Amino acid sequence: MKIEVLNCPNCGAAVFIDSAQCRFCTSRLKTMAYPYSPLNEEELTSRLTLMIQISSLAIRKFINRNRLEI
After folding, report:
1. Separation of alpha carbons 4 and 58, rounded Å
2. Does any domain span residue 70?
3. Handedness of CA 23, 50, 66, 8 (dihedral sign)
4. Which residue of 14, 21, 43, 63 could cross-link 39, Cys pair, CB 3.0 to 4.6 Å?
5. Three-state helix/strand/coil letters over the chain
6. What is the per-residue pLDDT for 60?
7. Average pLDDT, whole number, for the chain?
8. How far apart are CA 20 and CA 37, in angstroms?
């Protein structure tokens, strides 16, 4: 199963390629078609790790900005 994700240009959170809005900062997203090339396991692991790190940072910023307690 191929999962396609991008990063929100506003907060950096990982968003699905067909999303119209970021689920973290609610920014509206506009996507364009792009050429697809399959990734090998190492590239995929590297990209997923980076997306997780960016999403974690975006969540921390959101929590700090809104002074939420978890």
Report:
1. 19
2. no
3. negative
4. 43
5. CCCCEEECCCCCCEEECCCCECCCCCCECCCCCCCCCCCCHHHHHHHHHHHHHHHHHHHHHHHHHCCCCC
6. 87
7. 82
8. 23
Name the residue with higher pLDDT: 45 or 4.
Answer: 45
Is the pLDDT at 30 greater than 80? The verdict is no
Q: Look at residues 10, 38, 34 and name the one whose alpha carbon lies nearest to residue 22.
A: 10
Residue 58 has which token pair? 């975006």
Domain membership of residue 32 as a residue range: 5-65
pLDDT tier for residue 3 given thresholds of 50, 70 and 90: low
Choose the weakest-confidence range: 11-20, 25-34, 51-60. 25-34
Token digits of residue 4: 């396609």
Count the domains in the chain: 1
* Any domain includes 40: yes
